Amino acid sequence: MTRPIQVAMIGVGCISGIYLKNITGLFRDIHLLGVCDLIRERAETAQKEYQIPKLYETMYDAFADPEVDIILNLTRPYEHFAVTKAALEAGKHVYSEKPLGASLAEGQALKALAEERGLLLGGAPDTFLGAGIQTCRKLIEDGYIGTPIGSAAFMICRGHERWHPDPDFYYQYGGGPMMDMGPYYLTAMINLMGPIRRVHAATRRTFARRMITSSPLAGTPIDVNVSTYIAGTVEYASGALGTLFTTFDVYYPSQARFEVYGSEGTLLVPDPNTFGGPVCLYRPESKEVRELPLVFDYSENSRGLGLADMANALRDGRRARADYTQTFHVLEAIEGFETSGKTGAWVELSSASQFTPSAPMKKAVVPGILD
What we know:
The chain is an alpha/beta fold. Helix content is about 30%, strand content about 25%.
C-alpha cells in the first residue's frame, strides 16, 4: 500500500469534530499528521482523543514541516485568505473550508498564487460528492427529467445566534447567509446545471443589531454588517434560469427546499448541506412523487471526502473534484449577488468559461478509498 498523504489541520473549532472523526476513521488515503489552534487546549484535546502524532505551536510550524503534503484550513471565513496564502507560499497544497476567501479579490489572489506555484487548491463544500447529489446528477444526465430548464433553492432560518457558542462572525465580513450557506447550494447547482453566466439579486440587512441567546454569550448584542436577506436569480450558461434565496431573518418550520425542473419532470434534490437523501422524482406519467434509491457511496456525514479526493488527485496527477475552479466560481457568484443588490444590475461571471463539473464519483470497491 502506498504512503497516505500527510495532512496538517489548522483550526480545531466547531466544524473540526467531523473532520477528525472521518480522517482518522474512514478515509484511508490520508493521515492526520498534526493539528494547530490559537487556543492550544483545543489542539491538545484533539491530539489526545485521536492519537495525532504532532501538535504545532503555530501554523507556520506546520507549513515548515517537510512531512506535510496538504494543509487543511478550518479557520473562520475571514481568516481563510491569510492562512491559505501563507501555506501556498510555503509550498503546501491547501484544502479549505468554505468559502475560498471572504471576497472575490481574495479568491483571485489565491487562485493566481496556486497557479504560479503549481499547487493544488480547493475546498468545501464536498457534500456534492455524496450519495444524494451524485444520484441526482446521474438521474439528470440519464434524462429522467428531460432537458433541465430551471432550478429553485431556498435556505431559510432565523440565524445562528440561537445555537452557536460564538456567532458574531456570521454577521461580519466574510459572513451572512449567502457566504455561509450559499456555497452548499451553489456548488450543487453548478454540478447539476453547469456553470452560471450571470447573477442578479435584491439584498437587505433586515436587523441592524441582534441578540445572542445561546450559551455562553447569551445576552450579548451583535452589530450586523452584512446582508441577511438575499433573493438571487441566476442565468446558467445553458440558458436555464434559477433562483437562490438565503436568509438569517425568517422563522420557518423546516429546511426549505431545492428543486430542478426539466422538460419532462421535476427532481426534488436533498438538502445540499447533507451527503444523503431523500431524492424524489415527479413525472407526469405517474402524477406522484416517488423516492428513488441512492446509487452512490457516502450518504452519511462524510466531511473530508473532498480532502481525500484531493489526496488521491495529488497522487494520480488528476484534477481534484473540489478544486479551486469550483470554489472560485461559487465565490464569484456570491459576490455577484451582493454587487447586484447594490447596483440593481446583472453581474457577469468571468469564471463561467473556466468551470466545468468534475468527473462524477465512482462506486468504492473499499469504503474510504477513492478512485
